[in-house]
Amino acid sequence: MATVLRLSRPVLRSSVSPVFSPIRSVAINGARNYSSAKTQSLKETFAEQLPGEIEKIKKLRKDYGSKVIGEVTLDQVYGGARGIKSLVWEGSVLDSEEGIRFRGKTIPECQQLLPKAPGGEEPLPEGLFWLLLTGQVPSEQQVRDLSAEWAARSDVPKFIEELIDRCPNDLHPMAQLSIAVTALEHESSFSKAYAKGMNKKEYWSHTFEDSMDLIAKLPTIAARIYRNVFKDGKVPAVQKDKDYSFNFANQLGFAENNDFVELMRLYLTIHTDHEGGNVSAHTTHLVGSALSSPMLSLSAGLQGLAGPLHGLANQEVLNWLQKMKSAIGSDLSDKAVTDYLWSTLKSGQVVPGYGHAVLRKTDPRYMSQREFAQKHLPDDPMFKLVSQVYNIAPGVLTEHGKTKNPYPNVDAHSGVLLQYYGLTESSYYTVLFGVSRAIGVLPQLIIDRAVGAPIERPKSFSTEAWAKLVGATL
């Protein structure tokens, strides 16, 4: 398992009142920064840590740079580089048996430790962003300040609104999201500073500014796509004194249901980051290594997320479950579900939402959503169907013998929760995933620029060259 560099700054905690405080604007490296008068801002925290982290990496490379850390098999080369240890990703590590850890913390630990909204149950994604970037659990006030900062940055340029409005309604929502994020390149602090000429030490600061702006504007962009394609085209304004997830839920049109708001807080938190090797994370990192702006880098990552073998899977899972429901009706007997699973497999299809490239156990993200459903919608027919599939599918897939991991991943559950609360348009689900994934991949992009990560350029060979390397004759 890859090594995560631990950050040494102590955890900040406070017993402040759970309300949003006024924010002030200060300058760091010539760029704007918002901070409470009483607490250290995220940018200030990261800047303070940076010299020590750079020295830590320099020492690691100096003392152990020649140490061999793994081997590559030909199967891995032709199998999509599966499992090859070759990326640095600070925010999370995915263990095949344990599941994901964010800066060393499990999902249940994050649910317990990260600040919540006043009266809320689930952690705020603002807190996880702070944790991913710094390795620290932020105080409640720091999270309130970050919520306020994102709200202050949330205004979307008029030309972006017009661009979204001109997209045909039958253009997939993920394509619309990628177009809008690409067009935000016009606003990029990094690109403008680079064009003028800036010191490499300033790269991270402008990457930070772009990342904060991107994350702040994504819910309004995503909500506009949803309201245009499926509703009346009207998007409520961001409420500056509310948290990120509440505002997103409100702009989608679901904030009157407190349980849905809590679901958004959970959803946006657990979908953020899943190690650096998945398509959306790796693509964002790869494009960013060429010093493309966070806007262009994230847009590329979103296009990878839109693929059916990655983020689009949550849409496919719900569609498959709905087809099963239509076929078996209210008969949720073991036999009915088992027969349907076998009919899916015998037709040459996979059981969507089951299996994972790395995990060899039930995805902890699935379990957090299951626990949410058990608390809030235990009698929902679709949740009962999901539960029955959860009970039976692992055995069927094990007997089938072609799935290394017969257990469910995160996609096996999310769609059922969303449809229960009325967000039934499954083609939009990956957009929600995209908003969350930005919160996970952009911290690493900031870190990459801060520590001077180089352009990524692995070595490739032709099939004939690989055959020669392994002593084969073709």
How is this structure best described in words?
This protein is mainly alpha-helical. The N terminus is likely disordered. Helix content is 55%, strand content 4%. The strands form 2 sheets. Strands 1-2 form a two-stranded antiparallel ribbon. It is built from 20 helices and 4 strands. The longest helix has 28 residues. Helix 12 runs parallel beside helix 19.
The major β-sheet equals: 2 strands, antiparallel
Radius of gyration: 23 Å
Class per helix and strand makeup? mainly alpha
SSE order in H/E notation? EEHHEEHHHHHHHHHHHHHHHHHH
Low-confidence stretches: 1-26
Distance between the termini: 35 Å
- What percent of the residues sit in helical stretches (DSSP H or I)? 40-55%
Tell how many strands the DSSP assignment holds: 4
Annotation keywords:
single chain; 474 residues; mainly alpha; two-stranded antiparallel sheet; 20 helices; 4% strand; disordered N terminus
